[in-house]
Known about the structure:
Layout: H1 16-34, H2 47-71, H3 77-97, H4 106-117, H5 119-137, H6 144-160, H7 166-188, H8 212-226, H9 228-260
Helix pairs in contact: 1-2, 1-6, 2-6, 3-4, 3-5, 4-5, 4-6, 4-7, 4-9, 5-6, 6-7, 7-9
Amino acid sequence: MTTPGVPNRPVLAVRWRAAATLAATSLVGLVAFLWPFLAQPGSGLSHNADAPWLFVLLIALLAALVVAELSDGGLDAKTVAVLGVLAAAGGALRVLGAGTAGLEPMFFLLVVAGRVLGRGVGFVLGALAVLVGAFLTGGVGPWAPFQMIAAGWVGFGAGCLPRAGGRTERAILAGYGLVVGLIFGLLMNLWFWPFLASGAPAGMGFVPGDAVSANLSRYGTFYLATSLGWDLPRGVLTAVLVMVAGRPVLASLRRGTRRAAFGASGTFVEGHGTGRG
C-alpha cells in the first residue's frame, strides 16, 4: 500500500563511485555487443575466444560496483542479504522458464525489484540472477557474460523509470517489461549473429567491412524472421505478471525495505542514554 499523492521511487540512490563503475560496465557491454558493426575485416575477433575475458572483466566490474556502493554507504549487510535472496530467486525462476518458447518469469522479478531497490542494485541483481541460473542449469558458455550484461540493463532501466504510484506505476512497469522482453533478444542475437556466415538465411548474414547501415538492415531482417516470435512471449509474460502479481510483490518489497531501513544510519544523541544516575 502506498501513501496517496506520493509517487513511488527507488529506495537506494546511486552514488558517484557506483555511477562511474556502472558507466564503465555499460561501455564494456556496448563494445561487446556492437563491435561487429565497427570492426574491420580480418580482425579475428570471436566470442568463443574473447568471452572468457569478458566474463572475468564483468565479474571484476560487478565486484567494483558492490565495493563502491559499500564504501559510499549505498549497500549494507541487510541490502546484500536481500540482494542474495533475490538473485537466488531470479536464478530459480530462470530455471523454470529455460528453453520454453522464450517464456522467462525471471524478468518480472528484475523489473519489480529494480523498480523498488534502484538502478545500481537492479543492475547487480540482473547479472547475478543470470549467473545463478546458468550454474543451476549448466548453461555457462560464451553467451553467459552477454546475458549478464543485458539482464543487468533490464534491472537498471527499471530503476530509471519515472515516479508514479498505483495502477499508473504498474502500467508503466508492464509496458517496460514488454519492451525489454524484445530488446533483450535483440541484443542477445548479436553475440552469435556475426559468426553465422553461410549458415544465415539469404540476405540476413553479417558481411565484414560492409556499411553499418547495410549490416543493420540485414540484422533487422534476421531478427524479425528468426527471433521476434521467441522474444514476444517473454515480453508479454513479463507484462502480464506485472499486472497480475505486481501489486503484492511491489508492496512486499517496499514493506521489507522500510522495515530494514535501507540507507538509514544510527546516531548517538548526548543525554538520551538508558542508564539512570
